[in-house]
Amino acid sequence: VSLMIAAMKHDHGRELDDDGRDI
């Protein structure tokens, strides 16, 4: 998982897959 995706997960407060989509 990239730092960008990790930041997105933190920012949105939800789990995202590696493409940044909701899972």
Secondary-structure element string: H
> Structural class, please?
mainly alpha
Radius of gyration: 7 Å
Give the CA-based shape: flat
Biggest pleated-sheet summary: none
User: How many angstroms separate the termini?
Assistant: 14 Å
Mean of all residue-level pLDDT scores: 66
Helix segment tally? 1
* Percent of residues in beta strands: under 5%
Helix content range of the residues, please?
40-55%
What is the tally of beta strands? 0
Unreliable spans? none
Provide an overview of this structure.
With 23 residues, the chain is mainly alpha-helical. Helix content is 43%, strand content 0%. It contains 1 helix and no strands. It has one helix spanning 3-12. It is flat. The termini are far apart. The model has no long low-confidence stretch (mean pLDDT 66).
